[in-house]
Amino acid sequence: MINVKDHHTQRLFDPWEHLGPKRRRLLDNSWAGLFREHLFEKIPVTKIAVHFDAHNGRPTKELYTVIGVLALQQVHDLSDEAALEAVAFNTQWHFALDITGESDSEKYLCEKTLRTYRTILIEERLDGILFEEMTDTLLKHFGIDTSKQRFDSGHILSNMRTLRRTEIFAKTIEKFLKKLKQTYKELFDSHIEPELVARYLAKESGGCFSRVKPSEAAQTLEQLSEDLLYLVELFKSDKEVKKLHAYRMLKRVLSEQCRVSGKGKNKKMTLKEPKEISSDSLQNPSDPDATYDGHKGKGYQVQIMETYQQVGRDEKPDKTKPNLITYVSVEQAHKHDADALQPALDNTRSRGCAPDELQCDAAYGSDENVQKAGEKGISVIAPVKGPSNSPATGLKDFTFDDSTHLVKCCPLGYKPVKVKRTKSHYITAGFSKEHCCACPNYDTCPVKIRKRGAYLRYNEKQFRLAQRRAHEQTAEFFDTYRWRAGIEGTISHYKADTGAGRLRVRGLVQVRFAAAIKALGVNILRAAKAYALTFRSLFARFFGLKNGFTASKTKSEPYPIRHTLLLSKNKIDYASG
To answer: Per DSSP, what are the bridge partners of residue 154?
Structure first.
């Protein structure tokens, strides 16, 4: 039976009056006050309610409470045990979740209940709904200008060990043997040789493959790969064993790490060179979704877009309007950043918070991405990939006609003899062979000298990239692009403040859930600071205080008026202090 309380109707008596005006004011100014006042009602309980019967069965836990607990758990990076303790005893959590009673039914949850509801949230993909609806609420409440935003990716790790190549083989074999023994003990006893059991399952041999010396690595890998091939071949005709996830991991490691040739008894196996192994290969059998990035390492990557305030060098940003993350997406580490830009723009456009100007690094700034974004009315500011500051004279140093894009002269001022467009959509410009042969930039110039003359050949894409490279050298670009660096600090705070750098879970769907809610946590923590500043400013202006809450008229009267200011959605109320 579904249990959902009415948290929208205002109460006749304030259930928090016992705290006193000072402690109540602290709650109102904290993240708990922000969450309770503006975000709590956005919890999508209807998405959860469909999993329960409206009339039959035991009453569920109060749905607003349990979903709120799961969200706040990620915001504060708590274990299940710590989150349950917080909902039982923490006053800030009670205030944020509108828990006013003292009974166990209101303030107590068991770990099984928490895990069950978390599974439902992940299945329904409610992490994305929670992030988007609550973030959109904050954007609207604070009046955030989303016309200027920045975009970048960060590397995150799941709760898995970083394994070497020998350990990947050994752990995969060990997991298969344990699963086989647990599920099909008769097959294990009749087919698995004692030598394999001693090598991988004996207690005294546990972890021995993690202590392999570099000089013995090649020999150990050869032994591991032979055992791997033996187990795959041994059970390849057993329909039941082939259904085991652990057996599929055996086959995956074999195909990714080894090269098998021949048939039957003549099968030969050779190890692949490290450079031949794909970046989406298995990194740890405990987390099959984790992949590898040559620059950042093993794990996952998160794509983050956030707003920012562009002010003059002598101006200060408005602290009452926080920078908020508008988009977050988790993908495997081997995915290229360039493929993440268009989904981010489409998502923010559908929610009405798309940027007019987006700053990102060169990985996102391909010509294709810039052109597609331009069609959506979004200007992407990013350097062109490659050595843009090299002294080499390139196409960017030539002068072109703004309307036709035809070259007008070279960097030394010589005009082309003839310019034409070809059927293959290229532009060809012929220059004087005598001038080009005597040119001091001959070795670096894109003009190629042939028997019949000197020619410059380029297409529209190369022209656009040349224009962007030329713009990168201007003071205007440097002054604008300097704001992109702020996203690095946001990702650093995202990892440190919410624990996103090293998550407590494994698997892509689990990592996606945790990472999205933690991005919401960054927004909540940032908005709470701005919320407190706004609250203090309103209080000071209303009562004529110069320094917010610190002003006082006499020693016996700490505040000019003995009332506590309570902010509600559309009005200001007063509760006698």
So the answer is: 302
The per-residue pLDDT for range 467-476, each reduced to its tens digit, is: 999 898 899 9
Distances (CA, A) of 521 to 52, 98, 130, 244, 277: 28, 19, 11, 38, 37
Can you give the pLDDT at residue 10?
Answer: 77
Indicate the number of domains in the chain. Answer: 4
Chain segment 40-78, per-residue pLDDT in tens: 989 988 888 888 888 888 888 889 999 999 999 999 999
Nearest to 251 by CA among 223, 285, 274: 285
H helices of 291-411, in order, are: 341-351, 367-375
**pTM given for the model:** 0.86
Residue 227 phi/psi, 5° resolution?
-65, -40
CA-CA distance, 139 to 133, in Å (whole number)? 10
> Which residues 6+ apart lie within 8 Å of 467 measured at CB?
396, 400
Neighbours of 355 (CB within 10 A): 28
Domain extent at residue 3: 1-124+544-577
The helix (run of H) or strand (run of E) holding residue 497 is helix 486-498
Whole-number Å distance between alpha carbons of 517 and 67? 12
Decide: 37 and 87 in contact? Cβ < 8 Å: no
- Does residue 403 lie in a domain region? yes
